[in-house]
């Protein structure tokens, strides 16, 4: 058992060492992006959306902690909805934590894409897996715990494998799924405000509007701006790292 924990510690430590940047050609990156987009189609979305839902709720939780609030509960449900409960400083800190659910998956997705192409895939997978495990402290339902364990096991399994090239592809795919998922989720919240207004209680923009008096359309615009900004920064950061075919 001691040898196992020693090996585990060594694997995790090795994950923080920059590897040689993998030579992933542009056409393979495009295939991964198309594959991630396919996972956002209705037939696959019910399952693939769970990672986006978890990162969405962790975005709320991380923002709350950064603003001095305490996370008391996180729940993920089979219909890919979620909820995060916090308490502490009211006013701006509460609004800050409420805002970051939709933009964070695109930020994390873009970071994973960059890490995959810059030689930091293992580090990104290690940090992501460990943070997912840490979130178990706040998970308050069984389904949510299963989702967290699965989302932690996948990246940590690639870290354990210890192959930087395979890890790069894993980070690339996970990043692409989060980027595509952030766009799909944003489309869903827009639909709530334009077509399915009976579901307004599920919208962060609706809650922000109720708390501040600022119209939900403003908050939706800010969500979209955050996601678009993440995509732009990702493109600028990733473009120089792409390798031409051949």
Question: What can you tell me about this protein's structure?
Answer:
The protein is mainly alpha-helical and 246 residues long. It is globular and about 50 Å long. A hairpin with a 5-residue loop joins strand 1 (70-76) and strand 2. Helix content is 70%, strand content 5%. It has a two-stranded antiparallel sheet with strand order 1-2. The chain has ten helices and two strands. The protein has helices at residues 2-14, 26-38, 42-66, 92-99, 103-118, 121-134, 142-161, 164-194, 204-212, 216-238, and strands spanning 70-76, 82-87. The mean pLDDT is 90.
Shape: globular
Overall pLDDT confidence: 90
Q: Major β-sheet, in short?
A: 2 strands, antiparallel
The ordered H/E elements are HHHEEHHHHHHH
- Please report the distance between the alpha carbons of the first and last residues: 46 Å
Poorly predicted residue ranges: none
For the largest sheet, list the strands in their spatial order: 1-2
Helix content: 55-70%
How many helices in DSSP terms? Answer: 10
In short:
The chain has 246 residues and is mainly α. It has ten helices and two strands.
């Amino acid at each position: 058992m001691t040898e196992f924990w020693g090996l585990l510690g060594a694997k995790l430590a090795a994950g923080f060492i920059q590897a040689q940047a993998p030579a992933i050609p542009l056409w393979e990156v495009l295939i991964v992006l198309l594959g991630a987009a396919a996972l956002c189609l209705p037939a696959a979305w019910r399952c693939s959306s769970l990672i986006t839902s978890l990162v969405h709720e962790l975005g709320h939780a991380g923002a709350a902690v950064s603003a001095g609030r305490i996370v008391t509960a996180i729940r993920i449900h089979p219909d890919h909805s979620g909820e995060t409960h916090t308490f502490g400083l009211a006013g701006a800190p509460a609004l800050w934590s409420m805002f970051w659910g939709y933009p964070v998956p695109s930020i994390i997705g873009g970071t994973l894409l960059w890490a995959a192409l810059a030689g930091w895939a293992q580090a990104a997978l290690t940090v992501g897996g460990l943070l997912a495990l840490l979130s178990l402290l706040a998970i308050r339902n069984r389904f949510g715990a299963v989702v967290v364990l699965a989302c932690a096991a996948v990246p940590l399994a690639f870290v354990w494998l210890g192959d930087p090239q395979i890890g790069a592809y894993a980070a690339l795919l996970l990043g692409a799924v989060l980027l595509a998922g952030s766009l799909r989720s944003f489309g869903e919240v827009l639909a709530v405000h334009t077509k399915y207004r009976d579901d307004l209680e599920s919208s962060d923009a609706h809650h922000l509007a109720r708390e501040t008096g600022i119209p939900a359309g403003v908050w939706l615009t800010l969500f979209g701006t955050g996601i678009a900004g993440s995509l732009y920064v990702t493109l600028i950061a990733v473009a120089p790292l792409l390798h031409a075919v051949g």
